[in-house]
Write a structure and sequence with these properties.
The structure is a homodimer. Helices cover 75% and strands 0% of the residues of chain A. Chain A is mostly helical.
DNA sequence: GTCTATATGTAGATAGAC
DNA sequence: GTCTATCTACATATAGAC
């Protein structure tokens, strides 16, 4: 799958400010449309209309549909990783953290970013798409696996004796649960009508922390 | 989204045996192709080629793409629910079961069906697609929610004092983790290279059971 | 860099012979 | 019921004027 923008190879000069704004508008629109309709369900035309740009402009700045998708995923990945790693450092500052604090360091930054910012909620849907679709495995490996390794390593240190496979499995389960809450809180509402959603994040963290501890000793 | 087959309204007579076989071949092919490429990524032509049928035949038996998808989801839903409810009855036979037994009754039947049967593994991908995409909410509500209600009710009985919202949230987290393992065990392999996958199901059940108990008291 | 126009392929659906 | 041929729409992508 081609994901490199053509201009990466032969960029002649720095783009103008207006060009950068256009590029941002295109990426913002792509983020919304990919989040709403998935990769195959989205069309360049949808994105162009959403951005208020002509179709050709989306191609020019995006470098093709797959490359455009890859760019939207990459754009916020570093900020997300940085926030998570900073939270982990904070948790580690006073000696070995508890499992719950490590899980919180991974999850809370994403929810804080998503709270009140539609763009990060849309981005969460992109992350869920990438995680669920083997076609984007390379993208996931590039942008998400390094941080995952750090957290898995930290969790392994806190659950001595647990095989790495058990910790990795628990981490994958936890990420799935996190993405479910980030992208479809409505599903919980359907099964528990009328209740408020305050506290779901705390429930998620408690769920995953307890699960990681219990899973570390199971299945061997 | 239209999901009713035209012949539902004016079926003149029972279909011949050959027609039924054709219909089954079409549904089998649709299941494979939808599982591999998603709803938007799949095409009627892919399905026709996979089934060894002409394109028109797929339209005739499927009643359109959306209806065909709905049929593939519906086809195995009752068998899955029945297996789960039977397992729950077995667990309940000797007094109140433990949370872990209830989680196992929900999850084990699906893994047992998927083990060694590619069609059920493909079906798991369809279930994951339906769960993640709001567009299929009605389909999920029709085929999966009733069983979910039964299990949530049982779990609520076993965690007295927990608000229903907490139990429902835990159930959604557990289902997400289950679908992650059913549909992309390879993701665990990436993060824990070389290790075998024996025991992941036990880890999943331990993870979710502990998470449900811990989540029941959190977030309030 | 931007935008119009267009090239080329393929999608879902259907009509009508057999 | 089956299968061929076709309709209509829209997809991605690009060429080239400005």
């Amino acid at each position: 799958m081609v994901t490199g923008h053509p201009s990466d190879r032969a960029r002649k000069r720095a783009p103008s400010r207006r060009a950068l704004e256009t590029r941002d508008r295109v990426l913002d629109a792509a983020e919304r449309v990919f989040a709403a309709r998935g990769f195959d369900g989205a069309t360049i035309r949808d994105i162009a209309a959403e951005a208020g740009e002509p179709v050709g402009s989306v191609h020019h700045h995006g470098g093709g549909k797959a490359c455009l998708f890859a760019q939207t995923v990459a754009r916020r990945a570093e900020a997300l990783s940085a926030a998570r790693l900073a939270a982990l450092e904070t948790a580690r500052a006073e000696g070995p953290p508890r499992v719950e604090a490590v899980v919180g360091a991974f999850m809370r930054p994403f929810f804080e970013l998503a709270e009140g910012d539609r763009r990060w909620r849309d981005y969460a849907r992109l992350v869920a798409l990438v995680s669920a679709d083997a076609r984007w495995r390379d993208l996931a490996a590039e942008w998400f696996d390094p941080t995952a390794e750090v957290f898995i390593g930290e969790l392994a240190r806190l659950t001595p004796g647990a095989p790495r496979r058990a910790v990795a499995a628990g981490f994958v389960f936890a990420v799935s649960a996190m993405l479910a809450l980030l992208t479809s809180a409505g599903r919980i509402e359907t099964l528990a009508p009328g209740a408020a959603d305050e506290g779901d994040l705390e429930r998620l963290i408690a769920f995953c922390a307890a699960g990681l501890v219990a899973g570390a000793g199971a299945g061997d």
